[in-house]
Specification:
about 20% strand, six-stranded parallel β-sheet, about 30% helix, alpha/beta, 2 domains, Rossmann fold, nine-stranded mixed β-sheet
């Protein structure tokens, strides 16, 4: 039996493992620990160090040797790499935590899945519709042996479960519209000018990875450990702006509640198109077909100052910097990440139609998000935000950016991953630098 299969079967059985020496080991014994590679050891990686220290961190990788040294302070015995492709070829790795910049997420993730490694990838899962689809499709072929999690860690907040229960149990009546927004505004004039050679500790060509070449400028890299190092995020070749950043987190409030698959249409409007930087102000709207418990609905995303209309003048939605509003035929539910309020609507909206769950049937807490993934790696492989859930979410959001760029309503075939517009179809993917492949 392979080591990974042994770990999974042991955790699923809920018992200790009898070692050859005859010593009974518990869940945290060395024989039950995962061998983990951390790719990206700066910024968001700091949030993982404490949890991952419970396992065996056997490999560290970062294109910046100073950042690599930062990780090595915590895990001095791990092998160190600057090229993630070489890191993934290290023998004996069970699982990978990916905290790199967005333009390499889909590449590293797909390579790791190809090597039968469990994967935790910080959001977003991809920077194009095609990247999201490739990763999701690969995961679905391996979902019976690998655990995955998209790093939308706010999902662990109990409010997510409570909102989902309220919507599905009819607190607003029959659902019709969902509106989600974020107010973060990061403006960039365009790609930064050349600013000399990169420092010796930064392997700049590896940082660019599959993206087109742009000359080095330190402005892409300002920020410190534990900070939102988003200086590169607004550029088309490196990120997807707020769509991939806070859009991933905030749309998750709605996605968890509406049980959505892929949309059948998309529209987008916002700032005038800029060929180098993503829009700050943006509104995208999607049509979703009916499912077993709700009718067809529309879902809208707003950012950069664009906002949905408030249900009443005295309710100021702008006081919620990142939130969601669910509209039904008998009320509204407005939610932030950690709280919500239900507002009955109409003369017959007295909440007598609402059948709340009993204490015995409410959804259990997720608990720590990384721990959920680690337990899934050793157990039933089930996580809250696996690559099917997170993949469809970000595919929708990235499709909205395509609709914005084309300036027309797009009809979307989610099975084929194609629109009714040739120009839009060309924007579902992108070209990569020679020598870089997403399916290595």
């Amino acid at each position: 039996m392979k080591r990974r299969e042994l770990l999974k079967s042991t955790a699923a059985a809920g018992v200790g493992l009898i070692l050859p020496s005859g010593v009974l080991s518990g869940a945290n014994a060395p024989s039950n620990k995962l061998n983990i590679a951390m790719i990206g050891t700066w910024g968001r990686a700091d949030a993982h160090f404490g949890i991952m220290a419970r396992e065996n961190v056997v490999a560290l990788c970062d294109v910046d040797e100073k950042h690599l040294a930062h990780g090595a302070e915590k895990f001095p015995n791990a092998q160190k790499y600057v090229d993630w492709r070489k890191c993934l070829d290290q023998k004996g790795i069970d699982a990978v935590v990916i905290c790199t910049c967005d333009h390499t997420h889909a590449f590293i993730t797909n390579w790791a899945l190809n090597r039968d490694m469990h994967v935790y990838c910080e959001k977003p899962l991809g920077n194009t519709v095609e990247e999201a689809r490739i990763v999701r499709a690969k995961y679905l072929t391996k979902k019976d042996k690998l655990a995955t999690q998209v790093g939308t860690q706010r999902h662990e907040i109990p409010n997510f479960n409570r909102v989902s229960e309220l919507i599905r149990d009819g607190a607003v009546g029959t659902l019709s519209d969902v509106h989600v927004w974020g107010d973060r505004q990061i403006r960039r004039p365009g790609y930064l000018p050349a600013a000399g050679d990169p420092p010796s500790h930064l392997h700049y060509d590896l940082w660019l990875g599959p993206s087109p070449f742009h000359p080095y400028n330190p402005g892409y890299f300002s920020g410190g450990p534990g900070m939102n190092c988003l200086q590169w995020n607004m550029y088309w070749d490196f990120g997807s702006g707020q769509v991939g950043d806070m859009g991933s987190h905030t749309m998750d409030i709605a996605w968890d509640a509406i049980d959505a698959g892929l949309p059948t249409s998309a529209t987008g409007e916002g700032d005038p198109f800029h060929p180098e930087v993503t829009p700050v102000r943006l509104k995208t709207t999607f049509e979703h077909p009916a499912n077993s418990w709700r009718p067809a609905i529309t879902v809208s995303w707003y950012q950069g100052g664009a906002m949905p209309r408030s249900p009443k003048p005295f309710i100021d939605l702008s006081k919620i910097d990142h939130g969601a509003m669910f509209k039904g035929d008998k009320g509204f539910l407005v939610s932030s990440f950690d709280s919500r309020v239900v507002m009955p609507w109409g003369n017959d909206a007295d909440l007598t139609y609402y059948k709340p769950r009993t204490r015995e049937t409410v959804l259990p807490p997720v608990g720590n998000f990384q721990t959920e993934w680690l337990n899934a790696c050793k157990g039933n492989l089930k996580t809250s935000c696996d690559f099917n859930y997170g993949g469809t979410l970000i595919e929708q959001m990235l499709l909205g950016l395509v609709a914005y760029r084309v300036g027309e309503k797009l009809q979307y075939d989610g099975e084929k991953g194609k629109t009714n517009n040739d120009k839009a179809n060309a924007l579902l993917t992108k070209e990569y630098r020679p020598g870089w492949t997403i399916n290595g």
